[in-house]
UniProtKB/TrEMBL annotation:
Residues 89-177 form the Glycosyltransferase subfamily 4-like N-terminal domain. This is Glycosyltransferase involved in cell wall biosynthesis. It comes from Arcicella aurantiaca. It comes from the Bacteria. The keyword DNA-binding does not apply. Residues 196-361 form the Glycosyl transferase family domain. It holds the Pfam family Glyco_transf_4. GO terms for molecular function: glycosyltransferase activity. Keywords: Glycosyltransferase, Transferase.
């Protein structure tokens, strides 16, 4: 029985972490011929969900009170001189893992240490070039390229970027299709819930709502989202809603300031919530404003809920799903054309409904859970 260590940089409620968690739930529920554990560099909102699935180790020491830190230091002088990371590494060595799956390109700082576990390392890549530049350093990415025995890409665009920009052998890269949005498939739209949610934020019940979801940063194009909203500020029936991020983050604060300085009365920000589908269900259009997004899970969720999708060309994998039939692909960062497509969808209910139905049909056909899980198991079973 192969013993596998899955490594996640944190347990935040974001696409790559959620996708890994979903694969691990299936791995546990379907009782495959594997045992596995999870290593988290940092914690987060879905930390407890990971703990339900498998034993969880923490690379970094959790934040503690000053009193507890002093006690631990005192105990450490008596019992151990090892750092928390070294203690974790020693515990991992005892498990005698056969394979390591490192989720995302953000773990290059700890791969040299994990190499001491003496087993192959597979890096599961969810990022394109902008994400690689943003979320890791050249040194740490070199660690990933050097120490990984093989790679898994979340989409064809990611695989192509690894080949063209980082000269990784195509034969070393597998493509793993994203899973169907689990809760979105069974989600039942509730008009009363939508009305209540709109009332909560002071949005008219009959408003046409353009939604965006994701972390609040430049790569996600929140500035573009705001500029599109500014262009439509005179259309009093059109509102914009951004869901995601944390109000303690610098970028979140900056874009809130932008929103205020632009005098936008039609834009609402809401930090991450535990029920994002209730919000997505209230959207009339889903706008992917990202400058770059490999293959956003939220696109699949929006399509499952029959929402037409607007995205940019040359901005990642969303366009590969949207094509010409379940939304619009707009020239890269073209604000005026985006505005035009939003107005077109607002004015054409039949087109919105048609695109929404096609989007759901495509999700069901292209992201069959059994097929994706079969590929996942094949990757785990390979000899590296």
């Amino acid at each position: 029985m192969k013993n596998i260590l899955f490594v996640s940089h944190d347990a935040n409620r974001a696409g790559a972490q959620i996708l890994l968690l979903r694969f691990l739930r299936l791995l546990k529920d379907r009782k495959q011929d594997f045992t596995f554990s999870i290593l988290l560099k940092d914690g987060g909102l879905i930390e407890e969900d990971f703990k339900v699935v498998a034993p969880v180790y923490f690379w970094k020491q959790k934040v503690q009170s000053r009193k507890r830190i002093l006690i631990n230091k005192f105990i450490g002088k008596i019992t151990s001189t090892k750092s928390p990371e070294n203690q974790t590494l020693e515990s991992l060595k005892e498990q005698k893992f056969d394979l390591i799956i490192s989720n995302t390109i953000t773990n290059g700082d700890i791969l040299p240490a994990l190499k001491e576990l003496n087993c192959p390392i597979i890096t599961y890549v969810h990022e394109l070039e902008m994400g690689i530049q943003q979320y890791t350093t050249p040194e740490y990415f070199r660690n990933i390229v050097k120490l990984s025995n093989a790679f898994v890409a979340c989409g064809e665009a990611v695989k192509l970027n690894l080949i063209e920009n980082h000269h990784i052998d195509a034969d070393l890269i597998s493509v793993l299709p994203s899973l169907l949005p689990e809760t979105a498939l069974s989600y039942m739209a509730d008009s009363d819930k939508t009305i209540k949610l709109k009332n909560q934020y002071g949005i008219p019940e009959d408003a046409f709502l353009v939604g965006g979801i994701g972390t609040v940063d430049l790569r996600k194009g929140v500035d573009i989202f705001l500029q599109v909203a500014k262009k439509l500020n005179n259309h009093k029936e059109i509102y914009f809603f951004w869901l995601g991020g944390q109000n303690t983050e610098t970028d979140y604060k900056i874009f809130q300031i932008d929103n205020n300085r632009l005098d936008l009365e039609n834009v609402t920000f809401q930090t991450s919530v535990s029920n994002p589908l209730d919000y997505m269900a209230s959207f009339d259009v889903f706008f992917v404003s990202s400058r770059e997004d490999p293959y956003p899970l939220v696109v699949l969720e929006a399509a499952t809920l029959q929402k037409p999708i607007i995205c940019f060309d040359k901005a990642g994998g969303a366009k590969d799903f949207v094509e010409q039939d379940c939304g619009f692909i707009v020239d890269y960062l073209d604000i005026d054309k985006t505005v035009g497509k939003i107005v077109e969808l607002k004015d054409n209910t039949a087109l919105r409904q048609q695109m929404g139905k096609i989007g759901r049909k495509k999700v069901l056909e292209r992201h069959n859970q059994d097929n994706a899980f079969k590929t996942f198991v094949e990757i785990l079973n390979k000899e590296y």
